[in-house]
Specification:
Helix content: 40-55%
Shape: globular
Largest sheet: 5 strands, antiparallel
Order of helices and strands: HEEEEEHHHEHHEEHHEHEHHHHHHH
CATH topology of the largest domain: Alpha-Beta Plaits
Number of helices: 16
Structural class: alpha+beta
CATH class of the largest domain: Alpha Beta
CATH superfamily of the largest domain: Reverse transcriptase/Diguanylate cyclase domain
CATH architecture of the largest domain: 2-Layer Sandwich
């Protein structure tokens, strides 16, 4: 929670209530200057905290209750007060007051995005609101080239919002300057490592994240992904400081035309969100490393259709297709498949080898079989 918000919250709550209060972080540590219980250095919370719970117990302090404070859907801290769980009226009044103070703070200190930030945010979170023609017009108006291969990448700078914008960026004008400066730092980090690719579109899309439409005009896409993965620290160390402690990156598939940029940007955002849940220890996420999970969680019918097309594109032999379907239906059992098809077991093995050779996926491998099964189902459903 921003120190300025803590100060405002503490002062305004004290104006309406005479009881002792404290504002604590998610770990139970009181914020400096916001603790009326001076001897107490920690307020342990054992209960599970959720938006549905108006107050939780403070471990070992029967006379205290902690009221969860949420900021944009995320727990930002708790307000500790001398009261009982039965005093629902006081708890509700304080929660409503705190919610109002927090919302006013957010509205007042929300950074004003520039044109590129607005465009990148739409691509990242509302791709259905923009079509190829409008994207072309906006990119051209902003001075970016339309004829380049690009990859969408999301850089997540942990602590940028909570520890940097909220604490350093006061007042609003300073926030805007900090965002602009960090975008410049990202540009410098990328162009110093990929010196020939300088037509990068960089936008702040909220919280800790920046979206980049990376110029790949003279860089092979696979080579670019390898360099990002193996040299991430060298590329991103300049983006860190005492407030920004870590950098993670997600990389989309290559976009070879302007119309492919729209799904590419959304893909990069989804890959980061899913990747952090699947393997939070990683620093670089790509669709290939996450298997079929991004596609399964996507709401896009087109992405499912594309997945099926990419997996099955080279399977044009009807005999092989029938064999694959029979093998999957037989739970990967060679003998049962041979009986269903009325062929020798070795014939099934030969055909499965051909399928692996064509598709790069072995139906006898469980993960590959799952991908093939889902691709067949999606082609059946979506065409």
């Amino acid at each position: 929670m921003s120190p300025l918000l803590v100060q405002q919250l503490y002062q305004q709550v004290k104006q309406v209530i005479t009881r002792s209060i404290a504002i604590i972080d998610r770990n139970g540590k009181p914020y400096p200057g916001a603790n009326d219980f001076a001897p107490i250095k920690e307020f342990p919370i054992r209960d599970t905290i959720s938006p549905e719970k108006r107050s939780v117990a403070v471990d070992g302090k029967a006379h205290l209750r902690a009221l969860p404070l949420f900021q944009q859907g995320k727990l930002s801290g708790l307000l500790v007060i001398e009261t009982s769980e039965e005093d629902s009226q006081t708890i509700q009044v304080l929660l409503s007051l705190a919610e109002l103070i927090i919302q006013q703070f957010v509205d007042t200190h929300k950074p004003k995005p520039d044109a590129v930030d607005l465009l990148m945010t739409r691509l990242a979170y509302r791709p259905s609101t923009i079509d190829t023609e409008e994207l072309e017009q906006q990119m051209a108006a902003l001075g970016f080239r339309l004829d380049l291969q690009r990859a969408s990448i999301v850089l997540k700078l942990s602590g940028f919002w909570d520890n940097y914008l909220q604490s350093v960026g006061q007042p609003l004008g300073e926030k805007q300057n900090l965002i602009a400066a960090k975008k410049h730092d990202i540009e410098q980090a990328l162009t110093s490592f990929f010196s020939k690719n300088q037509d990068n579109v960089i936008g702040y899309i909220g919280n800790d994240s920046f979206l980049v439409l990376k110029d790949l005009s003279t860089t092979d896409y696979q080579r670019f992904c390898e360099l990002i993965t193996t040299h991430l620290s060298e590329i991103t160390d300049a983006l860190k400081n005492v407030h920004i402690t870590d950098v993670k990156v997600s990389i989309s598939s290559a976009a070879n035309s302007i119309d492919e940029l729209i799904p590419s940007a959304r893909e990069a955002v989804e890959i980061l969100e899913i990747g952090e849940r699947v393997d939070p220890s990683k620093k670089v996420y790509r669709k290939e490393g996450l298997g079929i999970i991004p596609m399964l969680l996507s709401n896009s019918t087109e992405s499912k259709r594309t997945f099926a097309e990419e997996v099955l594109r080279k399977l044009n032999d009807e005999e092989l297709l029938v064999t694959l379907q029979a093998f999957l239906s037989a739970n990967l059992n060679l003998t049962q498949t041979a009986e269903v098809l009325k062929v020798h077991r070795n014939t099934v093995i030969y055909r499965l080898d051909k399928i692996e050779e064509l598709l790069g996926k072995d139906p006898r491998n469980f993960e590959d079989a799952v991908s093939l099964y889902i691709a067949l189902r999606f082609r059946q459903i979506f065409g």
